[in-house]
Structure formats: structure tokens, C-alpha cells
Design a protein that fits this description.
Helix content is about 30%, strand content about 25%. It has about 425 residues and is of the alpha/beta class. It folds into two domains: about 250 residues, Aminopeptidase; about 140 residues, Glucose Oxidase, domain 1 (3-Layer(bba) Sandwich). The strands form two sheets. Strands 1, 2, 4, 8, 9, 10, 11, 12, 13 and 14 form a ten-stranded mixed sheet that branches. Strand 12, helix 8 and strand 13 form a beta-alpha-beta unit. The chain starts with a helix and ends with a helix.
Length: about 425
Amino acid sequence: MRRAAVLALLSLAMSNASFATDPPSGKPLSGAALYADVQRYDSFGVHRYGSSGLDHALDWIADELKQAGLAVSSQPFSLHRQYGFKKAILTVDGQAHTVMPQWWLADSQASFALTAPIAPDGDALAPDAFVRALLPFDRGAYLNAQHRAAIERALARQPRAVLLTIDHPSGEIFTYNVAQTDRAWQVPVILVAPKDNAALDAAQRSGQPVSLAVQGAMRRDVPGRNVVARLDRGKGKWIVVSTPVSSWFTSTCERAPGIAGFLALARLATQGWPQADFVFVATSGHEIGHGGMEQFLHAGAPKPEATVAWVHLGASLACNGAQRVILTSDAMESSVDRGFKGIDAARFVGAQAGVGELREVLAAGYPRFFGMAGTHPYFHTPADRAAMTSPELLEPVTRSFAATVDEALATTR
């Protein structure tokens, strides 16, 4: 009898054990396991909304969640438009430079070829030329009114196209997220990498024509999907875990640390944390309007009053040279401070914490949420790959998420 009581107590203790420090087998939170998931995401290539790379990544995430033991479904939706970009080349003095449109292009300008000189700087009209524009790098991720005003000044010269350089310190092409409601430019706005500015300077001085060729197609009512996985134990008290999957390029360190942490938490949830139900959502459409998160909040998310915590794993969580921010509602501030002790990041609390897709969560009235977001030296550039992170960077951040979930559930019965 006494032995049975001891065994029962041991069983209860194990079922409520903290995974932040000692998960079963240690595997889900190990740096090696997390980095393997980063490399898998990297292998799919470009993850832009509507791309085959994004489809492969979502399929992989769904398979991993099924293997973890969750009930997995696909949540279909569509976005009003997406530009199906293929390639763009700017040829200057016989040298080809890779360029890219800044969304959105008009339907009639989805594919085109132009040859023209680059007009001198100034305010004069240039209807038969390209004009250049420069935006300083402001560490933001979203095209805003100030950016648009600067581009509109170049468009007011009535050029054939605008050659836009965002002065990113990497020297690579950098692009901004856009919304579905943003209007298309009246002529194409083409992103040129800072490292190619010298070639444009020479062509502009000489008046030598340059050639621009862009290939793509504007698509309407573009289908997409979220991956949703549930662990419904009938408790009526939910932990929601979300992470975006899509972005402009391969975007490995922007997206994959969050996805690796997301999968780790899913694997842990099936092994313990019995006090609550869980729903995991991997969203798509982030870079062109947060469509996936909006869809999930509209149909699929538990009510705010039934949600113990909303956990969001956003951008650039564990990257070399990252600038990060820990995000939390007022109600979870003290728990988050304890869980993320030792993580080098700024803190945004309350209304200030509505960053990235947490802006929709905040607006929907969820009183208990936390997450992280950030940028890194190759954020929103084609150079963002798996080498920007490592097992050593991934593990402490993911353990901090697990520790904060532990604390959120500590008083949940």
C-alpha cells in the first residue's frame, strides 16, 4: 500500500515536470535537434507566399506535428493578390545585376523589358529615362508612409521605372513587407542592391542606357493555408502557439529558429503539460499582409477568456548579430522576465508589444501573450541562410519559451 502511494506520487510529479530544464530524453530542446529543423527548412529554398518552397515547408511541418501525436489539419484561405515573381536582371555596361521589384506592380507591368538612360538627379521630369531613389535603412520590416512618400517623389518625375536602393549594410537587396490593401506603383519600382550602386553611378554620369528585364505574373485570389495542430484534453484552458512560415526569400534565420522552437514545444506538449489543451498554428502570408494569422483568429483560435497564454515565435529569434525584442502583455510580464532571464533582448510590454503578428493577437483582445521578434544582418535579404544560426544560439532561447510555458501552467489546474 505504501509502495503504491509512493509510485502514484512519483507518477504525478513526472507528469507535471518542468520541461525547461529536463525534458524527456533532452532531445526536443537540444541545440542539435533544433538546428536539424533549421537545416530542413533551409532545404526548401524560397518560402514566399504562393511558392512551392512554402508548400513543401508546410507539408514538412504538418508531418512533424502528426509524428509528435497531435491532430493536424490544413486551414485553407486565399489572398486577394500575389505577384508571381520569377526573375529580374538589370544590365549595365554588359554586366548583369540581379534586381527585384518592390511590391506591388500593376498587372500590366508584371513582365516587361525596358532600355533607357538613368536621368540626372533632381526634380525635372524624366519620361524617357529611369530615375533613382535612395532610402536609408531604418531597421524596419514594413513599407510605411515615409517610405512611400520618398518613392512617390521619384514617381512624380514620370519615369519609365524607379531604381530604388535601400541602403542595407549587408550590401544586398533588402525588401519591405506590404499589405494587401497597398496600391500598385504607377510604374515599376525596382530594388537594386547597394553593392551595385557604383555601376549605376557610372552609367548615370555617362548617360549610357541600361536594360531592365523582369519576368513574373500577377495572380488573383491566390490560395494558401495554415497548418493547425490540436491537443484537446477537454480542459477548456488553452495554450496557443504560433509562428509564421512564409517570407520573401529562403529567409532561414528569419523564420527557422521560430519554427524549430514551435516544433519543439509541440513535441513537449504531447509528453507532458497535462493541465491544458494546446493548439499550434503555422501561418502563411506574413510578408504580404498577415493573411494566415487573420484567418486563424477569425476561425480556429480559442476565445481570449479560455486562453492561458498565447505564445508567438516570431522573426530572427536566434541569429548571429540579431537585434531582438521580447514581447509580453502586462499580465505576463513578471513570468516572462523570469523565463527569459539571461536572454539579451529589449523588452516591449503591453500595447508596445504588438509587433509582427502579435499586433493581430493584441487587437483581438488576448490579455495573456508573449513572444519574441527581431532582425539580423541578412534579414529580408537573399543572403539569409542556415549559417546565420547555430545549436548554441537556438537552445537557450527555446528553453526560455518552454520555461515561460511551465510558469504559465504552474497555477493551472
